[in-house]
Amino acid sequence: xxxxxxxxxxVQKTKIIRNASIRFQVKDVEKSHEQIAELLKQNxxxxxSDNRTSDAYQLDxxxxxxxxxxxxxxxxxxxxxxxxxTNYKNITAEDITAQFVDVETxxxxxxxxxxxxxxxxxxxxxxxxxxxxxxxxxxxxxxxxSAEGRLKLMKDQVIHSTISLDI
Length: 167
What we know:
Elements: H1 9-12, E1 16-25, H2 29-42, E2 46-54, E3 59-68, H3 72-80, E4 85-95, H4 97-123, H5 127-159, E5 160-166
Parallel strand pairs: 1-5
Antiparallel strand pairs: 1-4, 2-3, 3-5
């Protein structure tokens, strides 16, 4: 009788990055912007950027909105109520679970190697050995910091969805 292999919950959890790109017309850009800003507060979302441009024919407001992933659909539906004409609405979802697990696994391995180098450093007696180990540690530390930064970015992209909105 075979027993199921236990799987770490964090590894099993799917990592999805969801983004939306929306452009629509509104009656009054200023009033719609105020309403959208209020909707962001209500949904624990925020502006990543908020830019307004105008020419002789129209006033444009380009916004990048960051919203907790679980609230993205609700916020988009509420924002869409401002639309009098929708030019486009595109939603993407990217599964980065495999990439995430790969970076996490490589990071764990690098940290284990780092511990072995630190143990070697304590045992080293010759200056040349100490310098060699410190050089290896320096390179490894850069790789660890890079992997940690990448993991942090991926976690943020999964936790917060991005809505690019043009009105």
